Amino acid sequence: MANRRYGPPSGQPVPFTEYHQSKDELAGLPQTLAEKVPVTSTPNIFSYKSYVFAKNPALVQRYIKATKADVGGVGGHVVAADEVKSIIAKFVLDNNGYRGEPIFTSLIVTHTGDDVAVTGIMSEHADMSVVDELMWDALQEGAHKAGELGLYGPGQDLVADAFTGNLRGAGPATVVLPFPVRKDNPSQTVLASFADKTEPMAYNYYATGAYMLPRFNTGLVIASSSMKRGYIFDIVDLDTKAQAIEAGAHPRDLKALDGKMEELSKGLQEKVIRLRVPEDLYDIEGLCRSSRFVIARIWSRNEDGSPGELGYVVSAERLHNIKTKKGFTYGGKDDPVLLAFAQGNWPAPGEITSPWATCPMVAGDCRGSHNLHILPMPINSQTSFWSGPIVSAITLSCNIHTGRIGAISDQFALGTPWDSVRRQASDLAIQFRNAHGVKQPATLHEDELEYQEGWKERRARLEKKFQVMPPLTFGNGNGHGSANGGAKQPAAGARAGGRPEEID
Ligand code: 13P
Ligand code: MG
Ligand code: MG
Description:
Layout: E1 19-21, E2 46-48, H1 49-52, E3 62-69, H2 82-94, E4 104-112, E5 115-123, H3 128-148, E6 173-178, E7 187-196, H4 204-210, H5 219-222, E8 231-237, H6 240-246, H7 254-264, E9 271-276, H8 281-287, E10 293-301, E11 307-314, E12 323-324, E13 327-328, E14 337-342, H9 349-353, E15 361-364, E16 370-373, E17 375-376, E18 390-399, E19 404-410, H10 418-436, H11 453-465
Parallel strand pairs: 17-18
Antiparallel strand pairs: 1-2, 2-4, 3-5, 3-6, 4-5, 7-14, 7-18, 8-9, 8-10, 10-11, 11-14, 12-13, 15-16, 18-19
Helix pairs in contact: 2-3, 6-7
This protein binds 1,3-dihydroxyacetonephosphate and magnesium ion (2 copies).
């Protein structure tokens, strides 16, 4: 297209030979292993050779950006298709340019369940809205391929009617974390985590565990870094529907509700509260126990208590807050993504991920309508039992001078104690599902089933059949053993009417 703002100046796709691929990293080197036991499906890292191997790279502000969307699933919502991922990767690599510089110096394309993610390092040269446009168009290409393959729900998360300059509020989840700019020490560890079949609130387990409680992060007590001072949390109220009702819109007046929601989300504004760890621990736990409030950003603390560096960002958005031609979509859970720094002023990867070993239940699951135990899974895994929630977490070794993702490790690889967590979470999930079936708490509260049209119809039909009636009575009494009508005398200690004086 002529008016695309991205792409190399030649107008031709970037030749594939311009990229170094980590799958070839041992080319020309002696291999130290004769065989390798596969414990994860390690992503192939694409790096722009002339930049990541530059002798004197420019000391510029760089960012890591992760963008994730469901553009169509194999066999329902189970898993992303390799071909769709490759088409997305090809589009990004071919068009990886802006004003004569690459947009991404290094990038990976992964999946977690049916969600595809593009995670890459970019510099301040790239205009963020141009990067969003590149991502939007790449995901559209993926959606076309999904359609061609007959996948389920092609373009599922591309909710907005058209790209309007920003991915936020368009459907895909996207987060950006600025790297520190420093001459010394080019190494920065980043943890990227993707969840499927759940909602942003699930990530409150990361924050209220590893960034708040020494039980999950010994560093809070023994590290000499700024971690000893705790952190600053930005907590976002995601529920603009609840906000609209609280502001006076009647929950059954859809027009009033939509109007208020539109007003509240004008300009992509959000309702945020800033709280501090450790002093606001109870307030944070109080808010963050529900789906409504999500810890979206975490800052380190300077000596004077002011916010220092940003080191944790979650895609805290709900798709049902997005207005389209069809109105607000009220649809689905919003499979979140997280980028977080590790080490230094931040928890170690093993500390960040440790809360998942407790096998918590999260909302989402099949039809986005259940609670179930979340499974920590290797990157590039599928969902399975009851379309249950899964979370992946990889750590990226990044060179902040050259903008290269040098190597990747998988926190939830096979052959680790996470096998045991998966076993335990699976056992609990199977028991919980079988015990409760359609009943709460296995299914979500009515408010969260709002987009299940079948339930809405059933509920509306039954509601009309309810009648207001006098209580059921027997003989002259009220059917509950009262003193009338020759009923027995109240037992000692009980008042006439049957209620005991004291209840404990
Ligand atoms: P996704 O949000 O991952 O597409 O899941 C939808 C769903 O309801 C699966 O049953
Ligand atoms: Mg899906
Ligand atoms: Mg999904």
